[in-house]
Amino acid sequence: MALTDEQIQDLQGKTKEASSKLEQGDTFTAGGQQYEVVASTGPDSVTQGISVAPIVKGEPDYSQTAIVVAGTQPPNDEKGNGLGNELDSTFRAIIQSGTGYSIQGRDVEALYQQTEANLNAHGGGEITNMSGHSQAGPAVAKVAANHNVDRVTNFSDWGGGMAYTNGYISEEDKKYLDKHAHIYSDEGNAVTMFAKDGGWIPYGDVREVDGSNHGTDHAHIKGNNLDIDYYVKHGQLCSGMTKDQVKKAARLKAKKETDDFIKEHPEVDGERIRKDKEKAYYDSYVKNYEKEYGPYANEKGGKSKQTSSLLDSWELHALGTKVGGLATLLGAAGGGQQIFLKTEMLVALASQAMAQFAGFEAKLLAELEEAKEEVRRQCEEAKQRCLQAGPHLSSGEIEALIAPIQFEHVWDSGAEADIRAMLQSLKSQITEISTHLVTSAERFSASDNTAAVQFM
Questions:
Q1: How far is Cα 73 from Cα 90, in angstroms, rounded to an integer?
Q2: pLDDT at 64
Q3: Which residue windows does the record flag with biased composition (Basic and acidic residues) (predicted)?
């Protein structure tokens, strides 16, 4: 398993203070989750970073250790490590913004190595996550790519474009990061606009969010993605929206901007200009969405996007926790005991894979049915409103109004069929894999029995 982007965001908010005050073995809480410090850069470092493991059922789970590195320490930083380190940190940021080279990379690599050493002292573990904010972004990206860290969650990488242009982030690094890095950035580039690259981040899956705020808490994250529903509801734009979601958010945003404009300009006839002003704002937001936030999400998914999100949150490699424990026993076992542990491992894999899929399938189907019922309800409400117009319209006119809003016309049955087909395909694959694992377990058992007879 690995920590989610949401958990990493919570940790970023604690990193500066924790790295300066806490030592290996100390614990603290972020976002309601308790963590144990595995390693820290300490109170005298120019780079502020920690590595942590979540505490699960009272024990640290070193199999999902995260390295989190904070951004620049500006002079007089309340959570800084003294004026000398703060000036050095600021100087490094200036160098990085123009050249793309991260002096901080050495400190991040040292923290990685110290974390590995401390995990080995605990009997093993895995660094599953790395995260960097601002100046630390390119350094973390580089180190994570070098060590094949599975998940990188960065925030507003400072000088990321220059790091790539000048070769600090190589083409090979970029290919890896494009598959493994989620980078959250404010669309307005509040601080990164002052770097030589203007805030351009050419690697990873960059997720832009409305506004200009360089803080790690600016993006509203849910699990491993942006909380799209939050942005639509609050009339804000972000990456990953469908065209319909963009239009809904743009309407609310245009209304708010118009209200603000009228308040700031009491000399204008607000009601006279409102309609045209709102339309101008709305048209601009929709027209520029792809330029500022990236491509629209697939229209099939409000559903397909939701499906993708669920698939992303379904941790297939969560099996590694139990398998890892069995593998440790396997390495220490011998003879018939070793064969027995191999059998147990394979059966456990098969059982857990089927159980996880069943939970995933049930959750997805429930959400599909919920969406279907909501559409059905809205169609019925619209139909009733049309019928209420009866005294003023002919029966033919009423039928013409009702026809386009029949559930059968509104509901995307093709998208529903795609989701159900995908589930069936996944189910077949999981069943096939599980059957193969059980068959392999039976072969191990048979081999063990044969060996025992021969030995006797």
A1: 7
A2: 97
A3: 13-24
| CATH of span 5-226 | 3.40.50
Please give the share of the chain, as a percent, with pLDDT higher than 70. 79
Q: How far apart are CA 8 and CA 219, in angstroms?
A: 12
Helix, strand or coil, per DSSP, at residue 38: strand
Phi/psi of residue 269, nearest 5 degrees? -85, 95
Give the chain's mean pLDDT.
83
Give the residue-averaged pLDDT of 342-356.
Answer: 66
Tell the burial category of 5 from Cβ atoms under 10 Å away from its Cβ (0-12, 13-18, 19+).
Answer: buried
The ranges of the chain annotated as CATH 3.40.50 are 5-226
Band (289; pLDDT cuts 50, 70, 90): very high
Residues 6+ apart with CB under 8 A from 178: 203, 204, 205
pTM attached to this predicted model:
0.67
What DSSP line would sit under 376-415, residue for residue? HHHHHHHHHHHHHTGGGS-HHHHHHHHGGGSHHHHS-HHH
pLDDT at 308 > cutoff 50: no
DSSP 189: -
Residue 7's closest CA among 71, 78, 55, 57?
Answer: 55
Q: How far is 66 from 196, CA to CA, in rounded Å?
A: 30
Q: By C-alpha distance, which of 1, 14, 109, 110 is closest to 65?
A: 1
Planar angle of CA 422, 425, 426, nearest 5 degrees: 85
Q: Contact at 8 Å (CB) between 169 and 154?
A: no
How does pLDDT run across 11-54, given as a tens digit for each residue?
999 999 999 999 999 999 999 999 999 999 999 999 999 999 99
Token pair recorded at residue 250: 């743009």
